Amino acid sequence: MRIEIIARNYKLTDNLEEIINKKMEKFSRYFEDDANAKIFLKETGKERYVMEVTIFFGNNMVRSEVSSDNMYKNIDLALPKIEGQIRKHRTKLGKLKKSALEGETMYPQAEQAKMEVIRTKSMALKKIDLEEAVEDMELVDHDFYIFLNNTTGKVNVLYKRKAGNLGCIEVDA
Question: pTM of the entire structure?
Fold first, then answer.
């Protein structure tokens, strides 16, 4: 597995790089040699560090993003999430090594509980423009808003991004 570490607004030490490489190499038990891992490190504020781990293999990928007050702690938060995704979705991730799932997990806490839908809600799809959708979303105080864009005629999902601004997904049917 090829490992690439990218640091932005963060000073990557040789010790941290060595630890990341050592721990990421353990994931080669799951993937063929053509897998690529990208680890993105950044400082987002005073004493707040973010680590994004993305592993590309075949036409698939697994990804984890964590933040804490310590980049070393982030390693121990992100990697179990990655392993949990691999083990949970093993049937969908076709390009894993045959022997990948034999034996114990590297991180015992990696087995993730199955997510289930506990509530279903119905709503009327309003035909409005983007500006009106922003206003409606603010009025209902939700993190997202679904509407029929009267300009394009397509279903849109307006959502709040972590950075505090808004994003809009336009659905092609």
Answer: 0.62
